Amino acid sequence: MDTARLARSWHILTAVVAWAALLLQLVLVVRGGVVLDEVTPPALGTRLVRFISYFTVLTNLLVALTTTSLALGQNAYPTWWKVLRLNAIVGITVTGLVHWFLLRPLLDLSGADYVADKLLHVVVPVLAVVGWLAFGPRGRAESRLLLPSLVYPVAWLAYTLVRGASAGWYPYPFLDVGLHGYPQALLACAGVAVLLLALTRGAVVLDRTLPGRKQ
């Protein structure tokens, strides 16, 4: 199998797993599955809003969308697509790291909830990052995209803090102002922002040297 066919097969696998993980998690949310420490699920409308408020879910969606376009043989790459692809790779890397070091010790899941959690936080990140490292396509992460790529994570952080202040709910414990107060929560936001910026810059540098098709 040549490199192009192998790359497409990998993108197809990543897209299928990402879509399946998102669908499984959505079904569990509708059925009232356990998310983090929610022992008693709230009303369905609230559960759905919270579902799309997770950085994990949004970033897995970006991975699913961009890898689907690659699997379908996309040839044209407009600027907005390049930004989303960069967001997907950097965001899913952060998702895996934050889950492994901060959230994993807090979780006590079983059955389908456990499967969905591992797919979203471990399997999809590994597939997406390995696929990008091995196949690219290269030449899509440009220095000029560094600032535009920060719009998504910064907007998500702002939304999380604003909605959290009104609804009293935060998707991740380390951002919970009610638990930690604004100074510590804002410090956590700053830490996430620095990590995102560093990884984005690293992705731009690596994109110039890693193997893979330049399109």
Task: Describe the 3D structure.
There is one protein chain. By secondary structure, this protein is mainly α. The protein has one domain (3-207). Helix content is 71%, strand content 0%. It is built from seven helices and no strands. It is globular. It has helices at 3-31, 44-51, 55-71, 79-103, 111-135, 151-167, 177-207. It starts with a helix and ends in an 8-residue tail after the last helix. Helix 1 (3-31) runs antiparallel to helix 5.
Topology:
Elements: H1 3-31, H2 44-51, H3 55-71, H4 79-103, H5 111-135, H6 151-167, H7 177-207
Helix pairs in contact: 1-3, 1-5, 3-4, 3-5, 4-5, 4-7, 6-7
Q: Tell me the series of helices and strands, N- to C-terminal.
A: HHHHHHH
Poorly predicted spans: none
Largest sheet: none
The tally of strands reads 0
Span between termini: 20 Å
Integer tally of domains: 1
Q: Bin the helical content.
A: over 70%
Q: Helices and strands: which structural class? A: mainly alpha
Number of helical regions: 7
Which overall shape is indicated by the principal axes computed on the Cα atoms? globular
The proportion of residues in beta strands is: under 5%
Mean of residue pLDDT values: 87
Radius of gyration: 17 Å
